[in-house]
Amino acid sequence: MTDRSASAVSGQRNCALYRFWVRHPETGERALGYIGETGRLPFQRLMEHIYQQPWADTILAWEVDPITFPHKASVLAAERRAIETELPLYNVDGNLANPGRIPPGRAVLQRQARDPGWVQPQRNVRVPRQRAPRTTAAPRPVRRTAPPSQLTRWWRKYQTTISVWAVLWLLLWAVLWWLGRNAWTGWEEPRNAAILASIAWALALWGRLGAGNRRPPRRTRARKRTRR
Asked: Which domain of life is it from (predicted)?
């Protein structure tokens, strides 16, 4: 059956042939069931046949011809030639001379025999429509940052303390240099000031570390004396 609803859009989209391969309802063998044409998205015609045709439950495969036609007249001519040459089971137009064709009435009876209670739906039944995929921006790759090294974590933890002690050493060095300016000459002034500042700085640091590591004495509760 020709896709009549495609005539309005035939000038907007290339037309193509499609084929349904089915299981023969009498022999059980694979056979060409139907040849059609469409100027719409082929998926739409596929769903219409699945919802409307009595032979839809015997479909084995569905293919769209890679050759496209620029307008409706050319694809209709190609459809008629294909039907007359390939002799599908269920086509009506252009297929009346096919001795192996199955008329629509017999196809309905065969479907009801396979599926008791099946009723052919209305022609205007609403079927799912295929929508063109939307272009979406590719997701940005997740940037994984390496965890900080042990040295970096240590520096972040103690950088303030180290800076304070470095400033303290510089102050000691400057003060000692100023105090010994009359007793030392030449390079002895900065050298001796640096030595004394280092000694004082080391003693202060040692005292600081010792005070921090010293545990406070444990308090013991006095035992209450009980009188007998």
From this structure: Bacteria
59-101 pLDDT, tens digit per residue, is 999 999 988 898 899 999 999 999 999 999 999 999 999 999 9
Is the pTM higher than 0.85?
no
Same domain, 108 and 161: no
Which of 4, 21, 12, 213 lies closest to 124 in space, CA to CA? 4
DSSP 120: P
122 inside domain: no
| Cα–Cα distance for residue pair 4/124, rounded to 1 Å | 13
Residue 156 token pair: 């972040």
| Strand 30-38 relative to strand 59-69, pairing | unpaired
- Alpha helices (H) along the chain: 42-52, 72-86, 104-114, 150-179, 188-213
